[in-house]
Inverse folding.
């Protein structure tokens, strides 16, 4: 294990990697319940979608850990599941079987792009200021998710968002946030995991011993639930190749492509997981693992799998090798039978970790030359539009487009490589397809 994962070279240990894997799992485990909740609205059985979610998360994270040797969790992606349900099935009127076929074919396209190293070329074409901005934007996005999950920020008709009421639940979240921040500041090993556990314990009395006017934050729903394999191999491979379904396949390809690329870039820049050339470590293998995840998602009955930005929680806890992803992947598997236990970890316990990860991930913006406006403005747009639009892809699209506009306007069009022009063309195509 030491030689395969090069633990000593990466200045880590088995204990640290196990803690990091458990921490990453706790930060991403919500997908086991959330993904089937969204997919079931497309007419898919909830229990079958839950089983598919667990299987995709297990196999994909193991591939990332054992093959790519990176500490990154891979699971069905948020946003991609929403597109699957609300845009493809409910919006376009295709069946969920055809939508699963579109997921499979998009995975095949990913795999071909990875095998022929096209995705690596795309990655290398992304200007470094945009890479740093994407990392920071993802961090801000995760922070917003954390605050929203805790109820600390809520929708507001006058100001779009605003401060929520300081309920006992929110106060418990704030206590967990400050506790976790103190532990991190004091360099306590496993600080984030300790914070999640202690916040969970602090949340148990809510609705039981005090704040009795509110529902309990932690709901015990039993221990065991049998797996449901009814969605495995239910995809429609033939009808998903109809011309009318091509926009769905393209949307999956484009969104997952840039979500995964930006996640690899963001995590690498924030945690210094780069090679001697400054590129994300083992990026080729990581992209192949991500592509295979999307392919098996269609086969197993789920929306596309993708690299998870919440992996930053485990990385910040010390995870530096693929062992972190292996541990997290293995922790998914028991929830084929133990899914109800996830109810014991409320959103207010994992929300502080997501908020702090935002602070960790904005570090790279100090490398941006904010006085060079033709680079600073596109970087700024990419950084703020990711959280403001709740879409990594939209931040990337407008970052690329503004980069090209300003470079051309200042007579620097020759500095834009051909690959970047191709990316920009696809950005425009994606925007055109969104308006139809």
């Amino acid at each position: 294990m030491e030689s395969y994962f090069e633990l000593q070279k990466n200045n880590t240990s088995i204990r640290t990697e196990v803690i990091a894997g458990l921490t990453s799992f706790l930060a991403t485990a919500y997908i086991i319940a959330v993904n089937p909740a969204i997919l079931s609205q497309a007419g898919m059985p909830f229990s079958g979608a839950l089983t598919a979610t667990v299987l995709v998360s297990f196999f994909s994270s193991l591939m990332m850990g054992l093959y790519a040797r990176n500490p990154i969790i891979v699971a069905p992606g948020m946003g991609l599941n929403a597109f699957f349900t609300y845009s493809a099935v409910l919006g376009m009127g295709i069946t969920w079987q055809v939508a699963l076929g579109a997921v499979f074919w998009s995975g095949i396209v990913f795999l071909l792009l990875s095998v022929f190293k096209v995705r690596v070329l795309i990655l290398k074409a992304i200007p470094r200021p945009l890479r740093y901005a994407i990392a920071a934007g993802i961090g801000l996005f995760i922070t917003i998710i954390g605050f929203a999950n805790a109820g600390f920020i809520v929708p507001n008709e006058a100001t779009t968002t605003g401060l929520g009421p300081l309920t006992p639940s929110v106060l418990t979240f704030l206590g967990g946030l400050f506790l976790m921040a103190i532990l991190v500041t004091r360099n306590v090993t496993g600080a984030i995991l300790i914070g999640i556990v202690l916040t969970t314990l602090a949340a148990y009395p809510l609705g039981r011993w005090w704040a009795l006017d509110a529902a309990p934050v932690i709901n015990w729903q039993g221990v065991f639930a049998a797996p449901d394999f009814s969605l495995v191999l239910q995809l429609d491979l033939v009808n998903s190749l109809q011309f009318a379904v091509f926009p769905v396949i393209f949307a999956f390809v484009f969104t997952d492509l840039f979500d995964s690329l930006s996640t690899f870039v963001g995590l690498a820049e924030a945690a210094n997981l780069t090679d001697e050339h400054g590129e994300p470590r083992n990026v080729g293998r990581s992209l192949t693992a991500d592509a295979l995840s999307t392919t098996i998602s269609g086969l197993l009955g789920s929306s596309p799998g993708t690299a998870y930005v919440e992996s930053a929680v485990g990385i910040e806890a010390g995870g530096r090798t693929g062992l972190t992803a292996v541990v997290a992947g293995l922790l998914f598997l028991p929830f084929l039978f133990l899914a109800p236990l996830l109810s014991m970890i409320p959103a207010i316990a994992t929300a502080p970790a997501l908020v702090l990860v935002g602070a960790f991930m904005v570090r790279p913006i100090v490398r941006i030359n904010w006085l060079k406006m033709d680079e600073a403005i596109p970087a700024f747009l990419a950084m703020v539009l990711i959280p403001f639009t709740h879409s990594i892809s939209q931040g990337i699209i407008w970052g690329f487009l503004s980069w090209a506009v300003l470079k051309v306007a200042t007579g620097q069009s020759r500095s834009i490589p051909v690959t970047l022009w191709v990316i920009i063309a696809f950005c425009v195509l994606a925007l055109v397809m969104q308006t139809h």
